[in-house]
């Protein structure tokens, strides 16, 4: 299993949780979860923000130089914008237009 050094947002990791993750038999939890879900691979992280960062960072590395913008709603939580900025993507905020409804 691959471990990523992306800190979760304001989340402490109890020593007990860390120790249980290092026990034998749980080393390939990501692989077991991927098999269960029918996926080719599974990435685990400590928070949704960390996973969003990993996704955006992976997309940024695969994209051309012109494809570095991420469009997110203007009314969103801090973690979404922070993960976008941390991945070195250009953040574009969009607003809702009432005529779309």
Description:
The protein contains four helices and two strands; from the N terminus they run αααβαβ. The chain is α+β, with helices and mostly antiparallel strands and 101 residues long. It has one domain (15-100). α3 runs parallel beside α4. It starts with 14 loop residues before the first helix and ends in a 7-residue tail after the last strand. 8% of the residues are buried. The mean pLDDT is 75.
Task: Looking at this protein, list some descriptive labels.
single chain, 101 residues, alpha+beta, two-stranded parallel ribbon, 10% strand
Indicate the topology.
Elements (H helix, E strand, L loop, with lengths): L14 H7 L7 H9 L10 H15 L6 E5 L4 H9 L3 E5 L7
Parallel strand pairs: 1-2
Helix pairs in contact: 3-4
Estimate the global geometry from the Cα principal axes.
extended
Number of helices: 4
Instruction: Name the poorly predicted regions.
Output: none
Strand content: 5-15%
Largest sheet: 2 strands, parallel
- Evaluate the radius of gyration: 17 Å
Distance between the termini: 44 Å
Number of strands: 2
User: In terms of structural class, how would the helical and strand content be classed?
Assistant: alpha+beta
List the domain count as a whole number.
Answer: 1
Which sequence of strands runs across the widest sheet? 1-2
One letter per element, helices H and strands E, the order comes to HHHEHE
Give the mean pLDDT: 75
Relative helix content: 25-40%
Brief write-up:
This protein is of the alpha+beta class and 101 residues long.
């Amino acid at each position: 299993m691959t471990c990523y050094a992306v800190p979760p947002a304001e989340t402490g990791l109890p020593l007990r949780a860390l120790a249980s993750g290092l026990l034998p038999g749980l080393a390939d939890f990501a692989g077991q979860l991927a098999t269960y879900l029918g996926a080719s691979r599974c990435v685990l992280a400590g928070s949704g923000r960390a996973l969003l960062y990993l996704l955006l960072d992976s997309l940024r590395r695969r994209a051309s130089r012109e494809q570095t913008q991420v469009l997110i709603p203007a009314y969103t939580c801090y973690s979404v914008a922070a993960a976008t900025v941390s991945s070195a993507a250009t953040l574009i905020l969009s607003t809702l237009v009432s005529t779309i409804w």
